[in-house]
Design a protein that fits this description.
The chain has 291 residues and is mainly alpha-helical. It is built from twelve helices and two strands. It has a two-stranded antiparallel ribbon.
């Protein structure tokens, strides 16, 4: 009779042979050869890649220039939301009577001494502002009046954008950069560029703008060599009146004046300056360049 350890050895050897046979019968599959990447790209793909690279470089350069001026980069420029645009008039309505009143000759003479140009202009939007139903009710507007108001905002937007963008292109180095930044932010770009280039010249230019508004100086003639910040100041300082005149052609002077200065409308308040502002100019409270 075979000894137990012999039986165990035979069983072990038999299992090894069986496993070896199974491995030979079912060998592992060889890995599939990797697909060779195409060496040559399509010509159109190359053109698209080059165009994308050029656009990216342009945006980086634009962001660099804005960063130098302390402005927000193009990539994170916030677009006004519908609710923000709709509430702009309501926000303006809550301002105090001192802020809403029109600038007097004496006010402008005081601004000229400090080289400051505070303005109130119709909101600049890619899509012109239109009054909400609440604003229409508050102002008592007929449907035809609403159409006149829409047309006036569209004309104002077009007028300001066409005047501001070339000045902004000078500051940023290209029309494409000015287009990406947008007319509203370009106002700050032009002002900050002038301030950083020469604060004294900027103060003198803005003083001349204020003197024109005070009636102490004539506006420069068309074609005259006028600094960009001065051109901007003259445009912004007169835009509210131009907007009112557009309304007056259809609604008459009294109704146009009422609507142009109504707090329910969308307006931006800007402050062009060469340096820090003396708070005493505004009753002890400093006003910034925001809306």
């Amino acid at each position: 009779m075979a000894k137990p350890w012999v039986i165990g050895l035979v069983a072990f050897l038999s299992g090894g042979v069986a496993a070896s046979g199974a491995w030979s019968a079912f060998p592992p599959k060889a890995p599939l050869p990797a697909k060779a990447e195409p060496v040559e790209k399509d010509a159109k793909d190359d053109d698209l890649l080059k165009a994308n690279a050029n656009l990216t470089a342009s945006l980086h350069e634009c962001d660099r220039r804005l960063a130098e001026l302390g402005e927000r980069p193009v990539g994170v420029q916030p677009a006004p939301t519908a609710s923000a645009t709709a509430s702009a008039g309501e926000s303006e309505r809550r301002r105090g009577p001192r802020e809403r009143r029109e600038m007097t000759k004496e006010d402008w003479e005081r601004m000229a001494e400090s080289g400051v140009v505070p303005v109130r202009i119709p909101c600049i939007r890619d899509t012109p502002w239109t009054p909400s139903e609440r604003a229409v009710d508050r102002l008592g507007l007929a449907p035809s009046d609403v159409d006149v108001l829409k047309d006036a905002y569209a004309a104002s937007n077009k007028r300001m954008q066409e005047a501001i963008r070339p000045l902004c292109a000078q500051a940023l180095g290209s029309p494409e950069a000015a287009e990406k930044v947008g007319a509203s932010q370009c106002i700050d770009v032009i002002n900050n560029t002038a301030r950083k280039t020469n604060a004294d010249d900027t103060k003198a230019a803005l003083s001349r703008v204020a003197e024109v508004q005070a009636g102490k100086r004539e506006a420069p003639k068309a074609g005259a060599s006028t600094p960009a910040v001065e051109q901007l100041g003259l445009l912004l300082a007169t835009e509210q009146k131009t907007f009112e005149n557009d309304l007056a052609q259809k609604l008459g002077p009294e109704e146009a004046h009422r609507l142009a200065n109504a707090p329910e409308l969308c307006a931006e308040r800007r402050m062009l300056r060469a340096g820090e502002i003396d708070p005493s100019m505004f009753g002890g409270r400093q006003r910034g360049g925001g809306r």
